[in-house]
Amino acid sequence: MSDLSICYLCGKLLTPPLNRDHVPPKQFYTDEIRKKHSPNLLTIPVHQECNSSYQADEDYFLNTLAPFAKGSYSGNSLLDGIFRKYKDDIKRPLVHKTLNEFERRPSGLILPPDLVVKRIEGDRVHRVAWKIVRGLYFHHFAKVLPENTLNSLSIIPPDQVPPKEFLIALGDQDALGSYPGVFDYKFIQVSELDNFNYWAMLLWDRIILILPFHGLECSCDACSEIKSI
Questions:
Q1: Sign of dihedral through CA atoms 102, 99, 23, 205?
Q2: What pLDDT band is residue 4 in, cutting at 50, 70 and 90?
Q3: Cα distance between residue 189 and residue 14, in whole Å
Q4: How far is CA 72 from CA 85, 118, 181, in A?
Q5: 66 band by pLDDT with thresholds 50, 70 and 90
Q6: Cα(57)–Cα(124) distance, rounded to whole angstroms?
Q7: What backbone phi and psi angles, to 5 degrees, belong to 154?
Q8: Exposure string over 106-135, b if 16+ CB within 10 A, otherwise e
Q9: 222 SS3 class
């Protein structure tokens, strides 16, 4: 149960103006999915300003990863929703931007006919993925993960096999998503390693995001340096 008196994004006491942050973002669930299945969406009260600072990156995150969601029930619904909005001139420049991230001849290289390169703004995708994990961590443990916590992000698209450590670490863990067809997640904490965390999220039954990070108790040199800043 989260401590609802603290904003998990900045770690300060909640004071108006406030709003409720969806974890993960509400737009992960299309209008069609919400209408048909009424998923139980997790919300956490946060400062309105803190939450709104992520809006543009969340829009980008959704649009740049959406093409990889094609082929699943929720993924197809997501793409249909994006292109319906495109026809209605909603966020059309963003759709153009993310579609132009596909390249058939990156830096002059000639790829096989069935391959293309997808370039993404990694910092923006990482920022949103980490925000989601921070929200879930706060939900489970009522503790704020600082934004500068040492962590990393790996994106596993549908045509790639997850790393062995993913299967070893999380194979026996329970899935925790309230509507797994859109969003699911698992995690472990390793107490012997200062509660080192290994989290993974499944988006639209197609894309795996893996985020390992150092626990709040970690006293390694890198974490000690961050905490001293």
A1: negative
A2: confident
A3: 28
A4: 20, 20, 9
A5: very high
A6: 6
A7: -120, 135
A8: eeeeeeeeeeeebeeeeebbbbbbbbbbbb
A9: helix
Q: Which two tokens stand for residue 17?
A: 């103006």
Secondary structure of 108-156 as H, E, C letters: HCCCCCCCCEECCCHHHHHHHHHHHHHHHHHHHHCCCCCCCCCECCEEE
Dist. CA 163–CA 173, nearest whole Å: 16
**What's the one-letter identity of residue 200?**
A
In 3D space, the residue among 67, 21, 45, 36 whose CA is nearest the CA of residue 181 turns out to be 36
Tens of pLDDT along 177-193? 999 999 999 999 998 98
Residue 103: DSSP 8-state = E
Degrees, nearest 5: CA angle 45-130-32: 65
Rounded Cα–Cα distance for residues 83 and 30 (Å):
12
* Contacts of 87 by beta carbon, 8 Å cutoff, 6+ apart: none
Determine the length of the chain: 229
Using the structure block, give the residue that is written with the tokens 């080192």. Answer: 196
Q: Cβ(208)–Cβ(200) under 8 Å? A: yes
Structure tokens at 192: 């012997």
28, 69 Cβ separation under 8 angstroms:
no
Residue labelled with tokens 């974890």: 23
